[in-house]
Each structure stands twice: as structure tokens, then as C-alpha cells.
Amino acid sequence: MPLKTVAVLAFALMASSPAARAATCAPAASATADIAAVMTAMYAAAKVDDLDGFHAVTTPDFYAFDGGRRFDGDALMQLMKATHAAGTRLDWSVTEPKVEVACTLASITYVNVGSVTMNGATQPMTWLESAVLRYDGARWRIHFFSSTRAPQPK
Q1: Structural domain contains residue 105
Q2: Residue 3: in which H helix or E strand, if any?
Q3: Residue 15, domain member (yes or no)
Q4: What is the pLDDT of residues 51-100, one digit of tens each?
Q5: Which positions ≥6 away from 17 have C-beta within 8 Å?
Q6: pLDDT tier, 154 (very low <50, low <70, confident <90, very high otherwise)
Q7: Is 8 exposed, middle or buried (CB count within 10 Å of its CB: 0-12, 13-18, 19+)?
Q8: pLDDT number for residue 152
């Protein structure tokens, strides 16, 4: 049997094996709700400086673009902790989520409507945000996150 034929047959057998099927795609029907919930869980962890909660919803190689900077790993949470220590509080929400799923990868774009409270004064704030997530066979986890402050209405 020619080597090329053997390779094609081996690939076909591997692709149909139980191990290959175990790496199935994420459930598409619940993807938008599941992914929006992961983003909300990230905010819940950030709001109370919960590093374990943050790790539960991010990949080990997580990184983010925020405020014109790149943050690797836990650096975004370290920034949040310092912000909280300085007395600033942030509130966030995931609104208008748009989700695209391709098996074990997904993207989400949404409007984050929230506020920033400093020195007792609360300022409404809106951010335009996006993320790339990976499905690990059991749940979605955030690999990349990006946030840009939206202009505030006058």
C-alpha cells in the first residue's frame, strides 16, 4: 500500500477514534449564554480580588490589552488589586453580546456598561470589549481579553 494511502487511512482512523471524539466541539446551543457567564465571572473575581476565581475562567497563557498596555497572566488582577487599594471601585456588565463559535474556539464582542467610583463619586462608564475563549472539553476559558473605553455622551 503506498505511504500516502496509509497516511490518509491512519488520519481517518484517528479522527474517528473515541479519543478524537472526546475532544468534541463545545455545545453550540448554549454558547452565547455560557460565554457571557464566563465574562461575568471574570468581572466578579476582579471586583473582589479573587485570583482563584480569575484562574478558574482563564487559560494559563491568558493575556489582555487594556488601557493601551499588554497584561500577561495575573498582571491585570494585580492592577485591579492596586486600584482597589487606592479606593477605586469598578462595576461591569456584559450587554449586547455577539458570540462566534468554531468548535473549541470562540470570540465575543460586547458593550460593558458600568461605573467607576472614586472618592465617593460614581461616574457611569462604558467600554467596548472583546475576548477569545477556548473550550477545554468541559468549559469555556478566556485566552485573550481586550477593553477600550467608549466615548461618554455629553
Answers
A1: yes
A2: helix 3-15
A3: no
A4: 999 999 999 999 999 999 999 999 999 999 999 999 999 999 999 999 99
A5: none
A6: low
A7: exposed
A8: 73
pLDDT beyond 70 at 23: no
67 assigned to some structural domain: yes
DSSP label of 85: H
Main-chain phi, psi angles of 85, to 5 degrees: -60, -30
φ, ψ (nearest 5 deg) of residue 124: -60, 145
Total tally of structural domains belonging to the chain: 1
Which three cell numbers, joined as nine digits, stand for 97? 453580546
What is the span of the domain harbouring residue 31? 26-149
Q: What is the CATH number of the domain that holds 85?
A: 3.10.450.50
Rounded Cα gap, residues 70 and 93, in angstroms: 22
- Indicate whether 5 belongs to any domain: no
Give the Cα separation of 67 and 62 in Å (integer).
17
Please identify which residue in the block is written with the cell numbers 462566534: 100
The answer to whether 57 touches 64, Cβ cutoff 8 Å, is no
What's the pTM? Answer: 0.81
Asked whether the predicted pLDDT for residue 106 surpasses 50, the reply is yes
